[in-house]
Amino acid sequence: MAPQRWRTHMSAPEGTTVHSGGNWAASAAHRLKRKRRVGALRKMATTLPMCVVDYMDTTKSPEEEDIAAAIRAVRGRLGDKVLILGHHYQRDGIVEHADYIGDSFMLSQKAADSEATTIVFCGVHFMAESADVLTHDKQAVLMPTLRAGCSMADMATLEEVERDWPTMLERGGWSDPALRADPSAPADANDAFLVPVTYMNSSAALKDFVGRHGGVVCTSSNARGVLEWAFERAGERGAVLFFPDQHLGRNTGLKMGLEEDRMPVWIPAMGASSGLDDARIVLWHGFCSVHKRFTAEQISEFRTRHPEGVVVVHPECPRATVEAADADGSTEYIKRFIDAQPPGSSIAVGTEINMVARMAKEHPDKHIECLDAEVCPCSTMYMIHPAYLLDVLERLEAGELPNQVVVPASVQEGALLALERMLSIIE
């Protein structure tokens, strides 16, 4: 008998259903234990990380040791039917229990390739959505807490994009690829289409919009190849709408030889920062609050202290920061870059602090520091607490499917199309 489900009152991106429920045949003792733990979780729910935390300190409190031991025990009892995925930005207390650690797309691929019937995704909401789109119908995707969203993904909502889309087309003199028999076909010589490209860090509803309008998804590691594909579909007189992260779009466009004045910023409900007549990439006004903090001044200060040092940053950083660094790339690229540096190297890293601290612990023969000495971790990633992971695993063992993320079939169709186009480009 399938477990009972009901709608949760927790918020979720448009076009996504989330379930927090289960089989109430669970024992009274288990329900009492969970009630006590949920009470403790509610106390910590509003507590976000302080910037003074020592992320190199791996010491666990007795309570944290108990939680870790309990996770290992229930994880062992659940066996291969459960797959735990952990993003690079998760705290060590989560990563130690993950079957795979990686970026959002790599983890979604691991979910799709897995035979596990239940995927517990320790990341933020759009990641779990992508995993649900890519997995088969008999697999369930859960999150330790449904509160872990992404502020950048929330900066481009389906409502905003659908409202502004006709205005962009009119002001730029472009056509909608959706009007063609094959929306993703290469453009003819005189065509001028506006092709939407969305970063992986976006809702399933937005990916669905992109898929229906002949567009494609990109990651920070394949953005250039995806933009080249999109330009071929836009035509020489056309353009690309890139969202939600303006910095990744701008930095990639600059590497491709575009001038910044051909990449105006579109502010929702207000319009472009400059004319669209000669625009090649229209950048949606979104950004990552963590990567926006890293500056060229911080790089200069690091070089003063470490003249022989090297700097690697994420392309979600502002243009000046990326141009001042020695290298930039995705989280997987940053990891490989650090791995490749010789012993004794001094490396400054411009990305989320949990990953930087983990790299420093894995490479004790290298000096590795975060560019921003006072940077906080991603606050929404930080919401994934080991106690939440334990709670979900125990409820799974009791026959529930808590915190399930379900992308409706009507949304999955276009989202899957946009993801499959990306896969066809990189394969």
Description of the structure:
The protein has 427 residues and is α/β, with parallel strands linked by helices. It folds into three domains: 17-149 and 380-406, Rossmann fold, CATH 3.40.50.10800; 153-288 and 412-426, NadA-like (Rossmann fold), CATH 3.40.50.10800; 291-370, Rossmann fold (3-Layer(aba) Sandwich). Helices cover 40% and strands 15% of the residues. The protein is built from 15 helices and 16 strands. The strands form four sheets. Strands 7-6-8-11-9-10 form a six-stranded mixed sheet, sandwiched between helices. Strands 3-2-4-5 form a four-stranded parallel sheet, with helices on one face. The protein has a four-stranded parallel sheet with strand order 13-12-14-15, sandwiched between helices. Helix 1 runs antiparallel to helix 14 (386-397), helix 2 packs parallel to helix 14 and helix 7 crosses helix 15. The longest helix is centred in the last third of the chain and has 18 residues, at 409-426. It is globular, with a radius of gyration of 22 Å. The two termini are 41 Å apart. 48% of the residues are buried. Residues 1-11, 22-29 and 42-52 have low confidence and may be disordered.
Key attributes of the depicted protein:
427 residues; 16 strands; single chain; 3 domains; globular; 4-stranded parallel β-sheet; 6-stranded mixed β-sheet; Rossmann fold; 15 helices; disordered N terminus; alpha/beta
Q: What is the C-level CATH assignment of the largest domain?
A: Alpha Beta
User: Runs with pLDDT <50, length 5+?
Assistant: 1-11, 22-29, 42-52
Helix content: 25-40%
Classification by helices and strands: alpha/beta
Main sheet? Answer: 6 strands, mixed
Give the strand line-up of the largest sheet.
Answer: 7-6-8-11-9-10
| Total beta strand runs | 16
Instruction: Tell me the β content.
Output: 15-25%
Tell me which CATH architecture of the largest domain applies here: 3-Layer(aba) Sandwich
Rg (CA only):
22 Å
**Mean pLDDT, nearest integer?**
88
Overall structural domain count:
3
- CATH topology heading of the largest domain: Rossmann fold
Q: Count of helical segments?
A: 15
The N- to C-terminal Cα distance equals: 41 Å
Please tell me what the overall shape is. globular
CATH fourth-tier homologous superfamily of the largest domain? NadA-like
